[in-house]
Design goal:
The chain has one domain. A four-stranded antiparallel sheet has the order 1-4-2-3, covered by helices on one side. By secondary structure, the protein is an alpha+beta fold. The longest helix is centred in the C-terminal third of the chain and has 19 residues. The chain is built from two helices and four strands. It is 36% helix and 37% strand. The relative contact order is 0.35. The chain starts with a strand and ends with a strand.
Length: 84
């Protein structure tokens, strides 16, 4: 069963936090939520090398950056693989 974590971050910190989470490597899905509405949902391939995941996520990170410039605060919900 996947484990879910939530992080509330300022708009200018969103892209860096998403990049940090992708680099952790055990992420299945990242959701960007603003005012209880899901704005972006990024599914990441389980077991994909981190470098490939970052390259594939680059256009999405640019879109997230544009969105983040418009908001003051949002929530990042992360679905991780269960390590047990």
């Amino acid at each position: 069963m996947p484990v879910t974590e939530k992080f509330t971050v300022k708009g200018n910190e969103v892209v860096e936090k998403v990049k940090q989470l992708i680099h952790e490597g055990n992420i299945r899905k990242v959701r960007l939520i603003h005012e209880k509405n899901t704005i972006f949902e990024i599914p990441l391939t389980v077991g994909a090398p981190v470098t490939v995941a970052v390259i594939l996520a680059a256009p999405l990170l640019a879109a997230i950056g544009a969105f983040a410039a418009l908001v003051t605060e949002c929530t990042i919900e992360v679905e991780k693989r269960d390590e047990s």
